[in-house]
Every structure is written in structure tokens, then in C-alpha cells.
Amino acid sequence: MLENLIKKVFGSQSDKEIKKILPLVEKINSLNLELENISDGEIIQKSEQFRSVIAKKVDSARKDALEKFSDIDQQKKTYSFSRA
């Protein structure tokens, strides 16, 4: 009896989990409705745009990483030279 009262006041663990993910489910459902109204050509165009954006971000990240490694290599050479 006390357990039922606590569940009514605070809700069960399942209720809490459902409340937590419900906004995500609603967003997915709304996106699904949008996608149902898009033509195949538009989907292909969007896919190409996404690929382009992703490729640019990957290239940028790759350049940043190479610059950092280059700086580290230069610091190692400087440190090794100064210790010799």
C-alpha cells in the first residue's frame, strides 16, 4: 500500500525513463513526417550537402592534428638539440 502511494506521488522508474526520452521520440517522429514529404532528388541533394560539410570538417580536423604533431616534433628536436 505504501509502495503504491510512493509510485503515485513520485512515479515509477519506467515513468521517469519515458519522460526523459519522450522529447527525443517526438523530435524523431516530426523529422519522419518531414522526410515523408521530400522527393528522392531532394534527399540525394541533402546527402551531397552533408557529405560536403563532413568532408570539410574532417579536412580541417586533419590539418589541425598535423599542425599539432608538427609542433610537437619541432619541440622534441629543439629539446634534443639543447640537451646534446
Gross geometry: flat
Rounded radius of gyration (Å): 27 Å
For the largest beta-sheet, the strand count, sense and barrel status come to: none
Count of helical regions? 3
Quickly count the domains. Answer: 2
Helix proportion = over 70%
Structural class: mainly alpha
Q: Could you name the ranges where pLDDT drops below 50 across 5 or more consecutive residues?
A: none
Number of E-state strands = 0
Report how far the terminal alpha carbons are from each other.
80 Å
The overall pLDDT, averaged over residues, is 85
What string gives the helices and strands in order?
A: HHH
- Tell me what portion of residues adopts beta-strand conformation: under 5%
Spell out the blueprint of helices and strands.
Elements: H1 2-10, H2 13-36, H3 40-83
